[in-house]
Design goal:
Layout (H helix, E strand, L loop, with lengths): L1 E2 L2 E5 H7 L12 E7 L10 H12 L7 E4 L5 E4 L15 H10 L3 H16 L4 E5 L2 H9 L5 H7 L7 E7 L7 H15 L9
Antiparallel strand pairs: 1-2, 2-7, 3-6, 3-7, 4-5
Protein name: GIY-YIG domain-containing protein
Organism: Dyadobacter frigoris
């Protein structure tokens, strides 16, 4: 699936088919991103199933907890706030949750909501990076040589709800330090929850 100039496929597929010549990952230089999107069939899904899917989505967060230790007396842990943890879709108030639930009782409205939901899922990936060899780097991630798979497992998000996309870039900086600078600029702009960047 193509979205925003990135070629995406589900994590469960790519783990088994990273070398597939058509739907796998190329060995080119490029950028990649990981997105949590529990796709659904807007023409068939029952309203109650959709509501349950959206509640589950709303309860999952991908973030790195950071610790701040003061010089003398304060010690704090902070993390990015996701949706309110109130068991409603997207942490909405009870009133707004009921309104959205009523809205989703119409097939036409579900179809319209599908596009909106897809956009909010893809607008901010939870992890991203750059690689001289996309296939090699993503294979490392898939085999657990980074914290990404562990975080997905910890969050109880099924692999078929995680989409991994790549975009080949037409150039490759000759110096690895420039490549790292590009990646840092990209990460700081998009702010993915699992990407660690120094101050």
């Amino acid at each position: 699936m193509k979205y925003n100039d990135f070629e995406f496929n589900k994590l469960d597929y790519l783990k088994k088919n990273v070398d597939d010549p058509k739907d796998g990952i190329p060995s080119d230089y490029g950028i990649y991103q990981w997105v949590y999107w529990p796709a659904f069939d807007a023409d068939r899904i029952a309203t109650n199933d959709l509501i349950n899917t959206l509640k589950e989505y709303s309860s999952r967060n991908f973030y790195i907890e950071e610790e701040i230790k003061g010089k003398y007396k304060f010690h704090a842990k902070i993390w990015e706030q996701g949706f309110r943890d109130n068991a409603n879709m997207f942490g909405l108030s009870d009133k707004k949750h009921s309104e959205l639930e009523a809205y989703l009782r119409s097939r036409t409205n579900i179809q319209a909501f599908y596009e909106f939901f897809k956009e909010i899922c893809f607008v901010r990936p939870f992890y991203l990076g750059k690689a001289n060899n996309l296939r090699s780097r993503l294979s490392q991630h898939f085999s657990g040589k980074s914290n990404v798979i562990a975080e997905i497992v910890k969050s109880s998000v099924p692999d078929q709800h995680v989409w991994v996309g790549y975009r080949k870039l037409p150039f490759s900086p000759a110096e690895s330090s420039i490549n790292n600078i590009y990646e840092e600029i990209y990460s700081r702009r998009v702010k993915p929850g699992l990407t660690i960047k120094p101050d």
